[in-house]
Amino acid sequence: MPFGPPSGFGPRPAFPIARIGAAVTLAAGLIVLFCSLLNLYTVTVTPSAADTSNYNDIPSGTVDVGIGFYNVAPLPAPVTALAIPLLMLVAALTALPGVLGRGAQGALVSAVAAIAATLLSLVLMIANPLPSVELSGKLATDFSKETNFSSIDDLVSRVVDVGPGAGLIIALIVGLLGSAGAVLSYLQIGARKPDGAPGPVGPVPPAPGAPYGQPGMGFTGQMPRIVDGPLQPGQPGPGGPGNQPGAW
User: Fold this and answer.
1) More reliable by pLDDT, 229 or 101
2) Which of 48, 56, 240, 246 has the fewest C-beta atoms under 10 angstroms from its C-beta?
3) Interatomic CA distance for residues 29 and 184, integer angstroms
4) What is the pTM of this model?
């Protein structure tokens, strides 16, 4: 009958929780990759907002323009926006071993990549992709006189409305979920070895009275020291049984 610890005892591995976290990160990376095909920013232009006493024949209506992650013309996307789907793809690929239950080789890399992509999405949510233009000298004076606006930035802020697109919003929300899953997976299987893992076994000293070299009794390869002196009653002599070469 095999011997061993009873079932139900001992430390339980945290593998299921780590696997769920890695699966969330993997799904988040794929979702962000596909959602990067949507708009990064949406730009709404209202020409009638620039109507002044000098220009009273501007038609009403709006012009909606979408800036994608991969746009290069006519309104190019910020170069840093390309890092969002790439970082989430790295997070998804490095989380794949955790989903398959093959340890925590990429848990730390997955967490760092997902958090970096989420922070970058947050920064792009706040940032304004439009450039700032300043006029000086007679050009600025004539512009103010003709349009009743103090600067071009004032005119642009009145006419152009820039907001985050669907792709950037989804990237931020899904990135938060993916970051949480990656951190959870790292804390479970990446930070330290499971509790209760056996450590190195040190040498065991021989038991009192055990024959020299008995297996499992801490044999160190050193010969026992023989002390000269009078024999005690009942102790075998040098030529007696037990002291012959090879008796052990």
Assistant:
1) 101
2) 246
3) 16
4) 0.66
Yes or no: say if 51 and 148 are a contact pair by the CB < 8 Å rule: no
Tokens of 178: 């993916």
**75 against 96, higher pLDDT:** 96
- Torsion angle, alpha carbons of 51, 53, 58, 64, to 10: -10
Whether 166 has a pLDDT exceeding 90, the answer reads: yes
Contact, 25 vs 104, CB < 8 A? no
Query: Computed from CA positions of residues 190, 196, 198, 204, in that sequence, does the dihedral angle turn out positive or negative?
Result: positive
Nearest partner of 93 among 37, 30, 34, 180, judged by Cα: 30
DSSP annotation string for 165-193: -HHHHHHHHHHHHHHHHHHHHIIIIISSP
Bridge partner residues of 44 (DSSP): 64, 161
φ, ψ at 63 (rounded to 5°)? -120, 120
243/112: higher pLDDT = 112
Instruction: Tell whether the torsion through CA atoms of 8, 9, 15 and 18 is positive or negative.
Output: positive
Q: Which residue has the higher pLDDT, 192 or 133?
A: 133
- Which residue ranges make up each domain of the chain? 19-38+77-132+168-191
Helix %, strand %, coil % of the chain (to 5)? 45, 5, 50
Tokens standing for 228? 């000269």
The pLDDT tens digits for 184-204 are 988 887 554 544 455 555 555
